[in-house]
Structures are given as structure tokens and as C-alpha cells.
Specification:
Layout lengths: L11 E9 L7 E12 L2 E11 L4 E5 L11 H11 L4 E6 L16 H19 L4 E6 L1 H12 L4 E7 L5 H18 L3 H10 L7 H13 L10 H8 L8 H17 L14 E6 L7 H10 L4 E6 L6 H4 L1 H13 L6
Parallel strand pairs: 4-5, 4-6, 6-7, 7-8, 8-9
Antiparallel strand pairs: 1-2, 2-3, 3-5
Length: 338
């Protein structure tokens, strides 16, 4: 089981790479900043964008682990740009990914990622002069955000958890059942054969997890429904992907796999009191919606639940307008008591 409290605190430094801010005198500012936050050998890259210096700040934790190309950029283009109208959005490249640069694989530990988030939160509180910010995480980022909150939630106002896996073993079992049922409905002989002959539950190897993820991502309409990577890359101003990004993402995922397979947060998350928006999708075979709903139903703090009817694992792509509206309403809602 993962512990969110066994964290060592390190000194940190900040570098501003560049910024563009234009103030018309009314307080309206176009925020476009690239910042490095250094912690324990990692230079954590933050892409900060917004329209007004007084807007609420939202830190987004991408999925993966180990990938910004598919884990972060689609969110940033399909949903983030719309949220930037009313929020200052902070897109964090996790250690060893994207613009954050390489770190030793030995540092790809869950505790290091939690401590990274803690340092970035502290930076944002100081940078924008706030007592609290909002936190949002998708998939692995939702798990990471939850682990950070278990460590201490006093600096976060509200949390948006998008398709978060709270218990890895249970998630794998239900994902397997949902994916195999899809394969049978579709008479997909290859999927049926691999699922039945190459996976033994409970999953205890990285190879088994990769096979399950491969087919779960294709099941029930597929994870890429509505996703145009050319649109994403154009929107990010990226002309071509760096060679080796997939190899790097796979290496990080492999390095963290043993820890993640033992993650069990279902009981611990119940002790939180922070307002949480739980978001799930009907066709998500990677993080089945019933598991997200179960945690929502037992959660004792202020809460909302959204179930997207036409999405797989990326509802912010497939139903981006609805996604943005739900997030906006939750973060702007008055009357949450903690």
C-alpha cells in the first residue's frame, strides 16, 4: 500500500523562462508563462496560461505516468484553452516528461511525485498571492492528486478527479471483465485470446498490465474517439515529435509499475473533507465508471458526480463543452462547507 506521508522535503528554486503579460489598466492580463521549479534533481516545467490575474488558479496533473503527448496535450487543447477564460490554468510536466527533462529512473517513485506536487503548489500560492488553489487530475494524475491530498489538503480549495483509479487491483479486475465482455460482443478473437491466455488475475507484471491497457483502450468505442493528434500538435505549436518519446514514457511507466500495482486508496480517501468532483465515463474500460461511482457514494465530504454518456477515458476530448461546463460550475459553486 502506498503511503502519502513518507515524504522528504528538499530545497527548491525557480526560473522564469519567459512570460507575456499585457495589462489594459482594468486588471485584464493575458498570462502566458513558462516556469521551471527545481526539486531534488528534477526541473519541473509549468506552462501557465490565463486571462486575468485575479482568476482562480487550477493546477492540472496529467495521466500516464510518463507521458505529456497523450497524457497532457489533448487536455490542454480540447478543454484547457476553454477553461483559461475564467481560470489561470497551470499545466505541469511531471518529472522526466516533456519539457521537464530527464531524471534517473530510480527517482521515478510515487513519493517523489507527491513531493513535486507539494512544491509546485507552494510556488503557485506564492506566485499568485493565494491561500489556496484548485487541483485537477486525470487518470494517474487523479491518483497522484488524491495521494497529495491525503498528505494534507489545507492548501487546496477543491479537487476535480477525472477517471481516477483508487484501487489498482480492483480496477484491473473490473477493467479486465469489461474489456473481455466487449471482445466477446465484437467477436474479437485476438483480444479474447490475449486476455485469456496472457493475463492471470490479479495482475502482477508490467507485461500483463500493458496487454490489458492495449485492449481496454480499444474497447467500447476506443480511447481515441474524437481525438485528432494533428489538431493537438498544431494547437501546441509542435511541428514534430521528438524521437524516443514513447520509449521514455514506457520506461517511466515500467519503473513505477510495482508501486502503482499496490496502490489502495479507497478507504483512505474517505477521510478527506475537501469538495471533490468525481468524473467518469460510461465507455471507459481503463477506469470503469462503476468504481468511481462507488468511491463517490461513500465519500463523506462535499461532492458532485458526473457520468459522461458518450466518452471513453478522455471525456475532455469527446465531450469537451460539457466537460468544461461541469468543471466551471463546480469550481465556481458557492456554499461548500468543509
Amino acid at each position: 500500500m502506498l503511503s502519502a506521508r513518507n515524504i522528504v522535503h528538499f530545497a527548491w528554486m525557480f526560473w522564469a523562462l519567459g512570460s507575456m503579460a499585457q495589462d489594459d489598466g482594468s486588471g485584464t492580463v493575458t498570462i502566458d508563462e513558462a516556469v521551471f521549479v527545481e526539486r531534488n534533481g528534477a526541473r519541473l516545467f509549468l506552462d501557465i496560461k490565463g486571462k486575468h490575474r485575479d482568476n482562480p488558479v487550477v493546477l492540472f496533473l496529467h495521466g500516464g505516468p510518463g507521458d505529456v503527448i497523450l497524457g497532457l496535450y489533448p487536455f490542454q487543447i480540447y478543454a484547457g484553452k476553454k477553461l483559461e477564460d475564467d481560470f489561470t490554468m497551470v499545466y505541469m510536466h511531471q518529472r522526466g516528461t516533456g519539457n521537464s527533462g530527464q531524471v534517473p529512473l530510480s527517482s521515478q517513485r510515487v513519493g517523489e511525485h507527491i513531493a513535486d506536487v507539494a512544491r509546485v503548489v507552494d510556488y503557485l500560492l506564492e506566485r499568485f498571492g493565494r491561500e489556496k488553489i484548485h487541483l485537477m487530475g486525470h487518470s494517474w494524475g487523479g491518483m497522484l492528486g488524491t495521494l497529495y491530498l491525503i498528505r494534507g489538503s489545507e492548501k487546496i480549495d477543491r479537487f476535480v478527479a477525472v477517471a481516477p483509479p483508487f484501487d489498482s487491483n480492483i480496477n484491473a479486475r473490473v477493467s479486465y471483465d469489461m474489456t473481455l465482455a466487449w471482445a466477446k460482443r465484437e467477436n474479437n478473437a485476438d483480444a479474447i485470446r490475449e486476455l485469456r491466455t496472457q493475463i492471470a488475475l490479479p495482475i502482477d507484471s508490467f507485461g500483463e498490465q500493458m496487454i490489458l491497457s492495449k485492449w481496454a483502450s480499444q474497447a467500447c468505442g476506443g480511447i481515441s474517439k474524437g481525438l485528432s493528434m494533428s489538431h493537438v500538435l498544431d494547437g501546441m505549436g509542435i511541428e514534430g515529435l521528438e524521437e524516443g518519446w514513447q520509449t521514455n514514457a514506457l520506461a517511466i511507466a515500467r519503473a513505477m509499475d510495482e508501486e502503482l500495482q499496490g496502490a489502495t486508496l479507497t478507504d483512505t480517501v474517505k477521510d478527506l473533507t475537501i469538495p471533490i468532483l468525481f468524473m467518469a465515463a460510461v465507455n471507459d474500460a481503463n477506469v470503469p465508471p462503476d468504481l468511481v461511482r462507488e468511491v463517490f457514494e461513500t465519500y463523506k465530504g462535499p461532492k458532485d458526480f458526473v457520468l459522461f454518456q458518450d466518452s471513453h477515458h478522455l471525456p475532455f476530448v469527446t465531450e469537451s463543452d460539457a466537460f468544461v461546463a461541469h468543471v466551471h460550475d463546480f469550481l465556481m459553486k458557492e456554499g461548500f462547507d468543509r
